Amino acid sequence: MRTKSTKCLSFPLTVTTLLTSTSWVLYGLQRRDAYIMVPNMPGIVTSLVRLWLFWRYPPEQPLYHSLQA
């Protein structure tokens, strides 16, 4: 957050973590098993925070300059 950049964060990993944690929490709700739900809730929260960071500080785009003769 100090650098206001998300170049060190992996967007695919963030989305995958959100989907996986959500799947396990929904499975835990279906089974009514807190031992499955509780450990996966922080994964949802941290993924949402990381997605917010991607929205707030988009990754730096490389600048392409055309060579002029």
TrEMBL record:
Pfam families (alphabetical): MtN3_slv (PF03083)
Keyword Manganese (UniProt): no
InterPro entries linked to this entry: SWEET_rpt
Protein topology in the membrane: Multi-pass membrane protein
Major location (coarse): membrane
Gene Ontology CC terms: Golgi membrane; plasma membrane
Gene3D superfamilies named in the record: 1.20.1280.290
UniProt entry keywords in alphabetical sequence: Cell membrane, Golgi apparatus, Membrane, Repeat, Sugar transport, Transmembrane, Transmembrane helix, Transport
Membrane listed as a keyword: yes
Source organism superkingdom: Eukaryota
Cellular localisation: Cell membrane; Golgi apparatus membrane
Family listed: Belongs to the SWEET sugar transporter family.
Record-given protein name: Sugar transporter SWEET1
Species of origin: Eleutherodactylus coqui
